[in-house]
Fold:
Amino acid sequence: MSTENPEDVEALKSRIAALEAKEAELEAHQETRRFSGRGLTAWVLLVVAALLFPIALTAFWAQKTLVDTSRYVQTVAPLAEDPTIQNAVAAQVTTAINNQIDSSGKVDEILADFPKLQPLAGPITAGLHSLVSSTVNKVVTSDQFSSIWVGLNEKVQQGVIKVLSSDASSGPITIQGDQVILDTGDLIAAVKQRLVDRGFTWAANLPVPSVADRQIVLLTSPQLAQARLAYQIAQPISQWLIFAVLLLFLAAVLVAVRRARMIIGVGIAILLGALVVRLLLVYGETAVEYNLSGTSWAVAQNAFVTILTSYLIIAIRTMFVLGIVLAVIGWYLSGTSSATASRAYVSKLLDGAGAGAGDTALGKVGAWFARTRTFWRFVIPVLAVLILLFQSPLTGSTILWVVLLGAIAFVVLEFLVAAGRASLTSAESTTDDAEQPAPVA
Structure:
């Protein structure tokens, strides 16, 4: 017979309810503190990294493509075979040489001793112009031009760096107002030598064209002074800024309370950053086209800018893919109902398939993987990250292949773990059955 007082029971229930309420209040307070500390820090890191990411991506491209001489020359070398480049250079060089032929009076000098041939001065001059034009075209379409182009662009790159880093008033690249100018003197010398080689020895005595007649405008931009200032400020940090930004993204994920949600945030930040860079690139291309419209070098400059920014375009596309992949991974690891249901479905499939293979050789192999599961869950993503870090250039297709292979590795791991557990469970059941005493007859 119970001796408990109903009043004591009610008092005990009230006390338990009060303790549960106090515990819930403490948990809520702790969660608030966690958000105000770690959570706030994580979001600050994410915002800072997101703001720096477009700058870091552009600076990294500029450092690798524009500042690195060998990479720059390798990038622009194919332009020697681009018809628009060949035509623009040929037109400039042909005009410069023909002007020198006309101003030097070479035809009149040759015909001075043949008065009856004076009326032919015009046709002879036109024939020389045609000869110069054909010779120049042969030069710019030959292997010789490719060699000249590479050497010229090496000087261009070094000259541009000089232009951006300090005042440049001499050399193959100079600044005149808001224009960056290329001197084609080396190419004109090569054409003159080709004419001499073909028997026109008088070409060797042609005076060198004036500076104005042998120049090509490489870049026209009212923002040239700002570009130089930006280069001088950004150059010291451009090499490591992208890595600092990536570390900020990683720190945001590690510090965050809800890491899956933060991974989604990082993915979205990378997507938006890549979009900003792409829009700025479109604006820059439009500005260049507008500044050069109506000039003979406009079409050629479009080809030049297109190939020069090709690596940046690849980087932008890569970041789009990376952002999408991170957002999907973050969603799959999150606590949303759809993600939880997806993980449960995949786990059910793998557990069922693994249980069916528990009695096979895979079960024995899986038993070892079951004991080392935590190790492999750490190794697989680390290997994937290392593979991506050592890819140059990193592309979106590479990211997708690495993520796909990583996902397959995780699927195989979980399948083997399920098979190993099933094998261990079967072995334990067999051992228990063997230890049971035989029934007495």
Notes: The mean pLDDT is 76. Strands lie at 173-176, 179-183, 215-220. The first strand starts at residue 173 and ends at 176.
